[in-house]
Amino acid sequence: MDKMDRALRELGQMDELAAGDSPVHRLSPWVKLLVTLGYIIAVVSFDKYALSGLLPLILYPLLVSQLSGVSLILGLRKLRLVLPLVLAVGIFNPFLDRAPLLYLGSLPVSGGVVSMLTLLLKGLLSLLASFLLVATTPIDSLCAGLRKLRVPQTMVTLLLLTYRYVGVMMEELAVMSRAYHLRAPGQKGIHYKAWGSFLGQLLLRSMDRAGELYASMRLRGFHGEFYYAPSRPCGGRDLAWLLLWLGAFALLRLVDLGALLGGLLRL
Amino acid sequence: MITLENVSFAYEPGRPVLDGISFHIAPGEAVGLIGANGAGKSTLMKVLLGLEKAEGRVMVGGEELTKESLPRVRRKLGFVLQNSDNQMFMPTVYEDMVFGPMNYGLSREEADRRVDAVLEKLGLEALKHRHNHRISGGEKRMAAIATVLAMEPEAVLMDEPTSALDPFNRRLVINTIRELGQTRVITSHDLDMILDTCSRVILLSGGRIAADGPTEEILRDKALLEAHRMELPLRWQG
Ligand SMILES: Nc1ncnc2c1ncn2[C@@H]1O[C@H](COP(=O)(O)OP(=O)(O)OP(=O)(O)O)[C@@H](O)[C@H]1O
Ligand SMILES: [Mg+2]
């Protein structure tokens, strides 16, 4: 089905994005990991009403997107499946927390609305930062970076295999749904009576294939370490990137730049 | 190089897929493993690679296959899978090719040199930086063979190396196999290819060895082949 094919192509597209070349792509993967981690911690740790303090942190995804040539619009499109979840988490806040927190002109804005927007922004920024990390770092380099940060081998291997497994499963799904629809022309979706056997087959087939893939890795000497990921020595450029961003995040976290600017404007 | 002594294997108890297989393959020998669908060819390869644990003795390069010797034994063997989609798992052909050598401790420079040498030998330079999910089935098969050759194994096992190839690539694979100095074990339904690449044939049927001898002798034996659900090579048919 063309929907499946599109999903497959999107997964391949992430690999291709990550294989691109830009100043950001060239940074050492574990530095990018640390910066992304620092960013998410900074974003998440803001108070639930701290909308104004959060706003300047939008700079990070904007700048990284500029430097890497990976479009944020594309990121939003890829995140479209997860974003509603973030929305769903905050959606009830306006009903639960009605006390006015601030006034826009003479219009009272309740704490619930502010906290909903803050939550939304936190989710969006964290997701975008993760997207940019994955879009500028091949999965294998990412795993190598995780190993360098002392994440246990089993967890990293699991992550790598999950990533591959999802791809394999989607390929199988594409093949199977094509086979199904060739024999059920004009039918929308898959008839509910066939769901059970369809899912069972899908699981078995993708497990078989994933097993072969893993065997193929083991046959070529894979024991859970990532010797083969392109590992560039960590240079001054990487260190500068790390320190500058972590410094900026700390600063933005401690100083409410948004409110400060807002205050200046009001003067 | 490879010796099997009374090897038996079953996926499900009571339904043996391999039933008392014994043979010896000398270093440098090229052996064709033939048999109808379901005869147990792929299973036999999995047993040789230690992917399935069988009864009996498997010796590779003078060493018995056990849990302890498994990493050393595997290092001597290169395996081209029946389905290349399951063989290629890195984003690009190049990364797939350096995967094995670097896992075995080669430096990136050495690995790069090997990759370039193999690609040149097979005339596949254009594939080097292509993405695995963007190349055709035949190109993927060629790339899979290249990844295995880049590991410079002592013996090469190939499961259906010419299926899904166009005549040009099929010929290329045949010539490549012929020129290899390593021990080779090749399964195929393409008996003309076996005829061109192997000096000896082992015929599997119902989990047993139905015949083992010089290629010409076995592949000319119409009665024998037909008794085991096979036909003469195309070039010898009417
Ligand atoms: N994972 C498995 N579980 C159970 N039975 C299996 C499994 N894999 C293969 N078999 C069975 O074992 C037998 C031998 O299979 P095998 O794949 O070795 O045959 P083959 O000679 O390679 O056939 P082909 O020419 O079709 O590739 C078949 O009857 C098959 O159904
Ligand atoms: Mg087979």
How many distinct helices of chain B? 9
* Share of helix of chain A, binned: over 70%
Structural class of chain A: mainly alpha
Number of domains of chain A: 2
| Proportion in β-strands of chain B | 15-25%
- CA-atom Rg of chain A in angstroms: 23 Å
Q: Overall mean pLDDT score of chain B?
A: 92
What strand order characterises the main sheet of chain A? 1-2
Q: Are any ligands bound, and if so which?
A: adenosine-5'-triphosphate, magnesium ion
Keywords:
heterodimer; A: 267 residues; mainly alpha; two-stranded antiparallel sheet; 14 helices; globular; B: 238 residues; alpha/beta; six-stranded mixed beta sheet; four-stranded antiparallel beta sheet; 25% strand; binds adenosine-5'-triphosphate; binds magnesium ion
Question: Can you describe what's shown?
Answer:
The complex is a heterodimer of chains A (267) and B (238). In chain A, a hairpin with a 2-residue loop joins strand 1 (100-104) and strand 2. In chain A, helix 3 packs across helix 10, helix 5 packs parallel to helix 9 and helix 10 (139-148) packs antiparallel against helix 11. Chain A has a two-stranded antiparallel ribbon with strand order 1-2. Chain A has two domains: 1-138 and 229-267, no CATH class; 151-228, no CATH class. Chain A has 267 residues and is mainly alpha-helical. Chain A has 14 helices and two strands; from the N terminus they run ααααααααββαααααα. With 238 residues, chain B is of the alpha/beta class. In chain B, 36% of the residues lie in helices and 25% in strands. Chain B is built from nine helices and ten strands. Chain B has helices at 41-48, 70-76, 93-103, 108-122, 137-149, 167-179, 191-197, 215-219, 222-227, and strands at 2-10, 16-25, 30-34, 55-60, 63-64, 77-80, 155-159, 183-187, 200-205, 208-214. In chain B, strands 6-7-8-3-9-10 form a six-stranded mixed sheet, sandwiched between helices. Chain B has a four-stranded antiparallel sheet with strand order 2-1-4-5, with helices on one face. The longest helix of chain B has 15 residues, at 108-122. The mean pLDDT of chain B is 92. The chains are: A mainly alpha (267), B alpha/beta (238). The interface between A and B is medium-sized, with 27 and 31 residues. The structure holds adenosine-5'-triphosphate and magnesium ion.
